[in-house]
């Protein structure tokens, strides 16, 4: 590496492993994006809208995690990197604004904003690593950029197409982006990217993903409080609000009490940080975040229609959200420690069994059941870990 180009890269000191203020500032855009996503889904929740929203969750997560990988590698304290994040923030605002109408009249604007974020960030990273003289990382990022160019063609083509074809093209674009890391961004003649070419800080990635989980939980609190204030005249609002808040706290507890720290240690101590980071964070955190967002939508249903007999579409959010969340944390904790949290598996089974009761009980009772099961999972794990540590000592 050239000495003048060294400043572009993350410094090897303890401070550099912490999330920087520019990164936290950048994350604010995704608070707005998640609120937009949650409100769009809650306004007209059908299986078709749920599928479209799942596509948006995949897209938002992918643009955020890719940006996090780049800020993991670069020095966010220098002016060019900060300017990159500010530009990404503006494009992120455009992305969030167009999101509710992406399948109607603003599909092209959404596709252009998304593609500009992905391509612009990748081109910037290529320039940075060229300046730093890191040929191995430059070639890996070159492969990534080519794959993103290919997916961007499909994103923009979808934005120009009618809604049915748009769905197909955008699913294809996401498939290309998500399969890229698995194939190590293989290209003709160049072949796949060599393993472990990027100097990843596992501790930094773990902290950034944990902060995104907090953002998702914070979005849940915002939407729940906003919806509760609009339904104070309904008798069941107080009970549903209590259960919704309890669910949010319990999801925080289940994720942070033991799992997040184990994931951070695993990513930092492994001899294969790039591979482990992809497993734990790039793919492993997606169901966790999706589960939290879906749970927020379910809480909206139980606040706005507490006495209404449940439907399976509502239950998909009320019960499916916690199931996704527990499934994601189960995978994360198992990969990080080789220990299967049976409390989580039992919780998933109990939540799935609650679908049998959906046609016979009101929405607020489904909310109570979901919160109770999360409480059982949290208490079970807490007691089991306490006994395990006592026996180990």
TrEMBL record:
It comes from the Bacteria. It holds the Pfam family LtrA. The keyword Nuclease does not apply. The chain crosses the membrane at residues 49-71, 83-103, 109-129, 141-161, 167-187, 237-256, 280-298, 310-327, 339-362, 368-385. Keywords: Membrane, Transmembrane, Transmembrane helix. PANTHER family: BLL5714 PROTEIN. This is Low temperature requirement protein A. It comes from Neorhizobium phenanthreniclasticum.
């Amino acid at each position: 590496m050239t000495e003048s180009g060294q400043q572009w890269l993350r410094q090897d000191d303890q401070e550099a492993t912490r999330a920087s203020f520019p990164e936290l500032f950048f994350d604010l855009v995704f608070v707005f994006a998640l609120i937009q996503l949650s409100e769009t889904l809650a306004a007209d929740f059908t299986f078709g809208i749920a599928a479209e929203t799942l596509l948006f969750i995949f897209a938002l997560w992918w643009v955020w995690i890719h940006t996090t990988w780049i800020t993991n590698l670069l020095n966010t304290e220098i002016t060019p990197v900060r300017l990159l994040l500010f530009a990404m923030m503006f494009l992120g605002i455009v992305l969030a604004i167009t999101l509710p109408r992406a399948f109607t009249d603003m599909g092209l604007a959404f596709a252009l904003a998304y593609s500009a974020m992905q391509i612009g960030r990748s081109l910037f990273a290529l320039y940075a690593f060229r300046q730093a003289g890191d040929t191995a990382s430059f070639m890996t990022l070159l492969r990534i950029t080519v794959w993103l160019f290919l997916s961007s063609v499909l994103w923009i083509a979808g934005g120009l197409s009618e809604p049915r074809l748009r769905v197909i093209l955008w699913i294809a674009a996401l498939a290309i982006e998500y399969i890229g890391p698995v194939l190590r961004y293989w290209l003709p003649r160049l072949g796949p990217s060599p393993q472990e070419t990027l100097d990843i800080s596992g501790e930094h990635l773990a902290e950034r993903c944990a902060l995104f989980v907090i953002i998702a939980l914070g979005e849940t609190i915002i939407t729940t409080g906003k919806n509760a204030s609009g339904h104070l005249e309904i008798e069941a609002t107080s009970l549903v609000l209590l259960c919704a808040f309890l669910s949010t706290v319990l999801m925080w507890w289940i994720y942070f009490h033991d799992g997040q720290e184990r994931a951070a240690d695993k990513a930092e101590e492994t001899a294969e940080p790039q591979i482990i980071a992809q497993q734990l964070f790039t793919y492993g955190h997606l169901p966790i975040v999706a589960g939290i967002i879906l749970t927020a939508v379910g809480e909206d249903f139980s606040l706005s229609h507490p006495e209404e007999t449940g439907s399976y579409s509502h239950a998909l959010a009320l019960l499916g959200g916690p199931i996704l969340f527990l499934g994601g944390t189960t995978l994360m904790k198992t990969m990080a420690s080789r220990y299967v949290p049976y409390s989580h598996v039992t919780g998933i089974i109990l939540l799935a069994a609650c679908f049998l009761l959906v046609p016979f009980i009101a929405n607020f009772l489904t909310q109570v059941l979901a919160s109770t099961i999360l409480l059982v999972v949290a208490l079970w794990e807490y007691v089991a870990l306490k006994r395990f540590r006592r026996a180990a000592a």
